[in-house]
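Exercise 7.
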Amino acid sequence: LTDNHLNIIGFPDAVALGEALAAEIVAGIAASGATGRPYLLGGPGGRTPQTTYQALARRVTGMALRQLTIVMMDDYLQPAPGGGWRRMSGSWSRWSTSPPGRCWNTS
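Solution. The predicted structure, written as tokens, is:
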């Protein structure tokens, strides 16, 4: 928002959008590394962000990424009886490679 107005930027295609977003993310990662602060990157799965993730992978090659934490933002977990979280049933659980021990409640 600029002066309470939304600044809309158009891109010619998904690849150009992915490159622009990746550039912003890499700048944020680099800035956090320079100041010693953590960088938390939350992103969804699926097809929509693929061009961003592809551009990001190319741009971070060789970068120090110790300050980077990636958080997947999709709803693949559900509260488990007795506390904590469990994987959701359905199609996602059939292709997931995350072991159950890696799923935990962070709240």
